[in-house]
């Protein structure tokens, strides 16, 4: 079963590939989509971690 994230990822990858690599083979496009799916899996735990602006305050440059 396909999730909304999968559908969004496929749509994004299709649009990006059509724009930047219009002559890319279907096999190569499938490998690119697989790589994007791996990136989503790696990024999901990091993006799910709750971070607040006060968690690690840093100085602000003011000229």
What do these coordinates show?
The chain is mainly α. It has one domain (4-48). It has 2 helices and no strands. It has helices at 4-20, 26-48. Helix 1 (4-20) packs across helix 2 (26-48). The longest helix is centred in the middle third of the chain and has 23 residues, at 26-48. The radius of gyration is 18 Å and the shape is elongated. The N and C termini lie far apart (54 Å). The model has no long low-confidence stretch (mean pLDDT 87).
Features:
63 residues, mainly alpha, 2 helices, elongated
How are the secondary structure elements laid out?
Elements: H1 4-20, H2 26-48
Helix pairs in contact: 1-2
Give me a quick take on this structure.
This protein is mostly helical and 63 residues long. It has helices at residues 4-20, 26-48. The chain has one domain.
Low-confidence stretches: none
- Average of per-residue pLDDT values: 87
Work out the radius of gyration: 18 Å
H-E order: HH
* Beta-strand content estimate: under 5%
Task: Tell me the major beta sheet.
Answer: none
Number of domains as seen in the coordinates: 1
Q: Residue share in helices?
A: 55-70%
- Based on DSSP secondary structure assignment, what is the total number of beta strands? 0
